[in-house]
Specification:
The protein has helices spanning about 5-15, 20-35, 40-50, 55-70, 70-85, 90-100, 105-120, 125-135, 140-155, 155-160, 170, 175-185. By secondary structure, the chain is mainly α.
Length: about 200
């Protein structure tokens, strides 16, 4: 069955228990975004940033919720802030690449992917995040190689983001990725239909 409602309910409880926590508000915003409640998701992301403006998570969350609501310019603006406060966190960079590609700024998106790949040679960058960004730039074969690597290595980002995050839609458009997801043997799930 679909457990998104349960996730949203748990997120709501976190905020009730700790309403002044930027972290709790950001997590609730992510649950709402995945659950296809874009307006509410954005409201909680805004609250998270207000409560904890110097933390990375609220900015990355805003990047995700704005993208999920189809507000690309605002998603890219949130990405710029998130990248600045986090020292260019790879997750933020990967989501940024997707937003740039979808905004038609493909060369900039490819530059962000190149930055992720360069960082992966000197340190660990999760293969799923690279796959998601690479797929958005249109290099779907390379993205599938990285997705297979994510599966082999047990990359938790594949589980976290692969099935239901709007930014992963470029991967989900390819039947090979559906195969990779089925290998995870996760409970039945209907992916969100925000294309």
């Amino acid at each position: 069955g679909d457990r998104r409602e349960e996730g949203i309910e748990q997120g709501r409880q976190c905020v009730e228990v700790d309403p002044l926590s930027g972290y709790a508000n950001a997590l609730h915003a992510l649950c709402l975004s995945v659950g296809n409640c874009p307006d509410e998701a954005n409201a909680f992301a805004d609250k998270a940033r207000e409560l904890d403006p110097d933390a990375f998570l609220p900015h990355m969350t805003t990047q995700i919720t704005r993208y999920g609501a189809g507000l690309l310019d605002e998603a890219l603006a949130a990405a710029a802030t998130g990248l600045a406060v986090s020292g260019r966190h790879p997750w933020s960079l990967a989501f940024y690449a997707v937003g740039l590609a979808d905004a038609g700024r493909v060369e900039e998106a490819r530059a962000a992917v190149a930055e992720l790949n360069a960082r992966a040679t000197g340190g660990y960058v999760q293969p799923f995040m690279r796959a998601m960004a690479t797929a958005a730039t249109g290099d779907i074969d390379r993205a599938m190689v990285l997705s297979s690597q994510a599966l082999r290595e047990g990359d938790p980002a594949l589980v976290l983001f692969g099935r239901n995050l709007p930014e992963s839609r470029h991967l989900r458009a390819d039947p090979r990725f559906t195969e990779i997801l089925s290998e995870l043997k996760l409970p039945d799930w209907t992916p969100a239909t925000n294309s």
